[in-house]
Amino acid sequence: MRPPFSVYRPHPWHGLPVGPKPPELVTAYIEITPYSTVKYEVDKASGFLKVDRPQRMNALPPTLYGFVPRTYCGSAVARLAGTERGDGDPLDICVLSERPIDRADILLTARIVGGLLMVDKGEADDKLVAVLDGDAVWGDVRELEELPPALVARLRHYFETYKLEPGGNPVRIHESYGRERAWQVLAAAQSDYELEVAVG
């Protein structure tokens, strides 16, 4: 009998650290690259990347997109968002990189600079915004307001339109926020993970 998957490779949600220096520097597991026409996400049972669905419309992710390991959008994240519940997934993160990174299923170190408060079907679904640590163009950014407004607007537009397809669900970005609030969301998602999900 073969040993379980985790013996060979850690599960990207459960088996990796939050990051080298949270809340400032976190690990991001990347599921989707910019301009991908297919939405991928990690299979929660196996840890492998799977096809969630092809994007039927023209909404394409403007940044690298994935999640922070050992986080969960549960009751604490919901309280911060003013909703009844979180979406029950790891905390999402969008990462800016000046150099094209054209493959998913990778890890990188990201510097959190802010976030977007998204509500999807009444559930808190925050999107952290970060820059690739050490990036030649974005690496010195420390706050969301230091990013070009057009980039933040592009992120908002993507999340407000990427589910506008047959059977999809309109979502709403309630606000964007800076680093301090993003750090609070991260701490809440870590707490939710330990209280509601933690394995082993």
> What is the CATH level 1 assignment?
Alpha Beta
Distance between the termini: 21 Å
H/E series, N to C? Answer: HEEEEHEEEEEHEH
The total beta strand count reads 10
Second rung of CATH, namely the architecture: Alpha-Beta Complex
In round numbers, the mean pLDDT is: 91
**Largest β-sheet summary:** 5 strands, mixed, barrel
Query: What do we call the CATH topology?
Result: Inorganic Pyrophosphatase
Estimated radius of gyration: 16 Å
The number of helices is: 4
How helix-rich are the residues, as a percent range? 10-25%
Supply the number of structural domains. 1
The H-level CATH homologous superfamily, spelled out, is: Inorganic pyrophosphatase
* Poorly predicted residue ranges: none
* Beta-strand percentage range: 25-35%
Secondary-structure class: alpha+beta
Judging from the principal axes of the Cα atoms, what is the shape? Answer: globular
Neighbour order of strands in the largest sheet:
1-4-6-9-7
Keywords:
200 residues, alpha+beta, Inorganic Pyrophosphatase, five-stranded mixed beta barrel, two-stranded antiparallel sheet, 21% helix, 30% strand, globular
Please describe what this structure looks like.
The structure is a single chain. With 200 residues, the chain is α+β, with helices and mostly antiparallel strands. It has one domain: Inorganic pyrophosphatase (Inorganic Pyrophosphatase), CATH 3.90.80.10. 21% of the residues lie in helices and 30% in strands. A five-stranded mixed β-barrel has the order 1-4-6-9-7. Strands 2-3 form a two-stranded antiparallel ribbon. Strand 7 and strand 8 form a beta hairpin. The longest helix is centred in the C-terminal third of the chain and has 18 residues. The protein is globular.
